[in-house]
Design goal:
CATH topology of the largest domain: 2,3-Dihydroxybiphenyl 1,2-Dioxygenase, domain 1
Distance between the termini: 24 Å
CATH architecture of the largest domain: Roll
Order of helices and strands: EHEEEEEHEEE
Largest sheet: 5 strands, mixed
Number of strands: 9
CATH class of the largest domain: Alpha Beta
Radius of gyration: 15 Å
Shape: globular
Length: 127
């Protein structure tokens, strides 16, 4: 068994799509639009085949995204090396995204950084 894809609602589909293309090398389909419901989505495909569906509906709730909330908390991306973790973290910081911690080696041996990315969503960057 494998996870087929992860999905998340977002306020700005195009900005979110462009964020994942720019920083994480995603490729996007042409999008989907259901004109009767107003639902729109893009599937983003990453180098290893993992897929993220980003979606938008006319009426959505946008609750505060606290770092220690229950439920899904972050997406983790493996970038292949410590150097790439450092480079991407610096790039995101320089582009105005909040770095919560790292890059660092955690107590359980991961080399990672955690950032608050597009629309307040937490992302982990690791080897």
């Amino acid at each position: 068994m494998k996870i087929e894809h992860i999905a998340m609602y977002v306020n700005n589909l195009e900005a979110t799509r462009d964020f994942f293309i720019k920083y994480f090398g995603a490729q996007s389909n042409n999008g989907y639009h259901n004109s009767s419901t107003g639902f729109r989505s893009f599937f983003l495909i990453f180098e290893d085949g993992a897929r993220l569906e980003i979606m938008r509906k006319p009426q959505m709730e946008d609750s505060e995204k606290t770092v220690t909330r229950t439920g899904y908390i972050h997406l983790a991306f493996s970038v292949g090396s410590k150097e790439k973790v450092d480079e991407l973290t610096d790039q995101l910081r320089n582009d105005g995204y909040e770095v919560l911690n790292g890059p660092r080696t955690t107590g359980d041996g991961y080399y990672e950084s955690c950032i608050i990315g597009i629309e307040g969503n937490q992302l982990e960057i690791t080897i």
